[in-house]
Amino acid sequence: MKLLFLLAVAGVCLTLSFVWREPWIGGVGLLVAFAAMFTDRDDVHDDDKSSYETTKSVRNMRSRNR
User: Fold this and answer.
1) For the chain, what is the domain count?
2) Domain residue limits at 12
3) Is 16 exposed, middle or buried (0-12, 13-18, 19+ CB in 10 A)?
4) For residue 50, what pLDDT band results from cuts at 50, 70 and 90?
5) Which of 8, 21, 42, 45 is the one with CA 20 to 30 A from 14?
6) Do the domain assignments include residue 35?
7) Is residue 12 one of the residues assigned to a domain?
8) 1-12 burial by CB neighbour count: b if 16+ within 10 A, else e?
9) Region Disordered: start and end of each range (predicted)?
10) Residues near 18 by beta carbon (within 8 Å), at least 6 away in sequence
11) Which one-letter DSSP state was computed for residue 65?
12) pLDDT in tens, 9-40
């Protein structure tokens, strides 16, 4: 949700830079987009570290290439 909000703010800033012909507003928009890109977290659950047993989907993925 935070990523979409920050990208929307960056898009508004970039649009305003073309409307008002002020390049610094576009620079602020690019900085906001850059911050959004690097503050986005990937909350993927790691099955290997949390339990002794792996899930069935992980076992199927591992055995597929053998």
Assistant:
1) 1
2) 1-40
3) middle
4) low
5) 42
6) yes
7) yes
8) eeeeebbebbee
9) 43-66
10) 26
11) T
12) 999 999 999 888 889 999 999 999 999 888 87
